[in-house]
Amino acid sequence: MDRRDFLHLTALAPLALAADARTPAAPATGARPSGTGPYGPGPHGRGARGAELVGALGAGRSAPPPDWARLRGRLAGTLVLPGDSGYDDARRLVNPAYDRIRPGGVAYCASPADVSACLAFARASGVAVTPRSGGHSYAGWSTGTGLVIDVSRMNTVSYAAGRATIGAGAKLVDVYDRLARHGVSIPAGSCPTVGIAGLALGGGIGVVSRKYGLTCDTLESVRVVTADGRLLTADATHHSGLYWACRGGGGGNVGVAVSFTFRTHAARDLTVFFLHWPWSRAAAAVRAWQSWAPSAPDELWSSLHLAREERDLDVLLVGTYVGPKASLDRLLAPLVARVGAPSSRSVRTTSYQEAMMIMAGCSSRSVAQCRRPRREAFAAKSHLAYAELPADGVRRLVDGVARGGRHAVLLDALGGAVGRVKPAATAFPHRAALYSVQYYAKGTDRTWLRRLHGELTPHFGEHAYVNYVDPDLTGWRGAYYGPNAARLAEVKSTYDPDRLFRLPQGV
Questions:
Q1: DSSP letters along 133-158, please?
Q2: Per-residue buried b or exposed e for 389-407, using 16+ beta carbons within 10 Å of the residue's own CB
Q3: Do residues 25 and 252 make contact, with C-beta atoms less than 8 angstroms apart?
Q4: Residue in 185, 73, 91 with CA at minimum distance from that of residue 135
Q5: For 220, how many CA atoms within 13 A lie in the half-sphere containing its CB?
Q6: Running along the chain, 507 residues long, what does each successive block of 10 average in pLDDT?
Q7: According to the 3-state scheme, what is the secondary structure of 367-400?
């Protein structure tokens, strides 16, 4: 593939790719959630944790055989079972590393009532449930061997009086497209096929976050089907604990979200920029960027990519600016002075919608074409940087990317509006972080990821982003949620006391 394809498949898309990272529940009762190969102790191994999960009926109690025909009869949507036409398509996630997983059934729910019926089925039969929106889970936890509750058909996008109401199955490309018709948008990421549910539930780091906040920061209310089958509307005054948990606590913990209402912002023209430097400037770029990007004006968001594709090493700065090109040029000047003249530079002011298509790698494609996911096996890990990398850390980062393979590290600027929200105000705790770090490798081998992540952990600490879910983490509660973990556990006990929703890394 050419450099442009590599850029968008391994760099731009992951900004929102993992938005579904926490949506699913674990596989069925008594089944090892990962098995062997890409799910076992090898490339995607997560050890034995959660291997012997009990269903909603509890250990030691028998359940009748699942009555799949009865469930099918109760759904307005479609239940796809093994042997049915379309089963192979229905069971696949975006990441083909998990194609070997075979659910007992995939329910395409047409309404909240369908979701409630699926949860009643799970409670009665002991079959584990896996909610799924876009199917982008980094760990493959958007599927399992039980019942997959797919909400992709609940994908409406409507707008009125400054508010957008979005079905949990809406893909990001459609959210941007439909809201653009009203001249508005919400802050979100770049991957066009990610589902809005996972993105918002995990927080939602995106390409205008510094100006408008995380996706969850504009969430005013959410409708959730809880484990007992109730459809609840959670906001600041109704089920406020559930509302709090749905803003950064990750999907798959306390219920199945079916729709969201967000405040919108005006979709102003954006200036999109791409600057490349030769690899010899990689260390200088990291040093300069990390002291420049998190403290830039809110209107300026940027991401520094260090990438290797076989023998080709690349340093790329990509970003968006809510303002004109001339103003951006002045803001870029101090960075360029420290790093050196870029080998190539592209700066363009365009409509908000076109900017989102560019960031999605879809500038030459239609919305319909962009809606179809590009499937390529990958693995990932993450950090949140609360302090700048010292000289030794910069050296380790640059040397690590230079090692042989096909991989990238993405540094996404935070600060701005993200940092002005108190860490306890939402379940997303990393408000003081300067930037997020994503380690991204093509294929399923996690060797490079684990090595570089381990080398940089002494500098970055044990902080990770729940939407870049990492099956290797043992201290994941603290890494994802920090001091918010205890309150999340309380919300879990209130809305799912029998633990119907069970994740390998579940609250």
A1: SS---TTSTT--SSEEEE-TT---EE
A2: beeebbebbbebbeeebbb
A3: yes
A4: 91
A5: 10
A6: 36 37 34 25 26 31 81 98 96 96 98 98 96 96 97 98 98 98 97 96 98 98 98 98 98 96 98 98 98 98 96 96 97 98 97 97 92 92 98 98 97 98 98 98 97 98 97 96 98 97 93
A7: HHHHCCCCCCCEEEEEEEECCCCCHHHHHHHHHH
